[in-house]
Amino acid sequence: MNIILSIEDQGLELAPLIANRTHDALRQGCLVSINPIDGSDGRTVRVSVTDSENDPAKETAMLCTLLADIIVENLQIRHMVRLLRQKYCFLSEKEQCDILVRALKRLWYGKNGQKNEVMLCKMDVRQRLIETLKQNDADNVVLEGFMRFRMKDYLTAWENELNWCVQDHIRKKEYAEFVDILRLFVKIRIPRVKQVHICIDGEGEYVLLDERLCLLQNRFSGGRIDKDDALLSALVNIAPLSIVVHNRERFFDGRIIETIKDVFGARVEFSEDMI
Fold first, then answer.
1. Helix %, strand %, coil % for the chain, to 5?
2. pTM given for the model
3. In sequence order, what are the residues at sequence separation of 6 or more whose Cβ sits closer than 8 angstroms to the Cβ of residue 85?
4. How confident is the model at residue 89 (pLDDT cuts 50, 70, 90)?
5. pLDDT in tens, 144-159
6. What is the pLDDT of residue 201?
């Protein structure tokens, strides 16, 4: 099999990308020859795949295996880097790098890090390449062109994953800044009481008691989110030396407890005692 392959990315050379993967082909009885085209800056090459048994289908499959690896392991990363730089140039280089790594992990190994999605992706891309070469009887393929026309769903998924990771990064960054401000406020504020007990009454409402178990506050207006905000605001204003959270499993949303822990740190303890 003979074919001319090209990439548009001016930061890459195609010949080394293919050459680095030819040992697998050789083990399976296929010899891969690579000849760069003059004047292409290494981005266009003529590739010949020869099977020891002269099986054209095997030659096509082997070539597509090599190209699928390059698309997923190299061009996908380059594509996502370009998206980050174009859409999220306000992020630092380190932030962009961290987001890229996280997005790739989620794409390659699943959201829980326990799936081998990258292999499934390579197999699917390989099959699409085989079908493209068969249907078009192509002797010249531009890899990014193949991605644009035959991998639109992947390009969309990659961009969506990046967008989600960026937004999640921004949310976490804003949350960290918010917590830092509250920590500073608590640090400089004079405690109004030594200890505050946080309880949930029979109606699911927050109740605040002092160290003598005297009522500080038992009604927080608004919906659940508003009440969580009001609870946090009350604790920050009181700035107690210690906070005891009773029966944490009764809290509607555990995130408010995590926020209280983040703001007050070692001042927070938990108790299963009913009050």
1. 55, 15, 25
2. 0.81
3. 96
4. very high
5. 999 999 999 999 999 9
6. 84
Burial class (CB in 10 A: 0-12, 13-18, 19+), 273: exposed
CB-based contact 172:190 (threshold 8 Å): no
Q: Which fold has domain 189-271?
A: Nucleotidyltransferase; domain 5 (3.30.420)
Domain boundaries of the chain, sorted by first residue: 2-180, 189-271
| Per-residue 3-state assignment (H helix, E strand, C coil) for 140-186 | EEEHHHHHHHHCHHHHHHHHHHHHHHHHHHHHHHHHHHHHHHHHHHH
Can you name the residues that pair with 206 across neighbouring β-strands? Answer: 200
Note the pLDDT tens digit of each residue in 194-221: 999 999 888 888 889 999 999 987 655 5
Say if CB 143 and CB 7 are below 8 A apart: yes
Quote the CA–CA distance of 163 and 194 in Å, as a whole number: 45
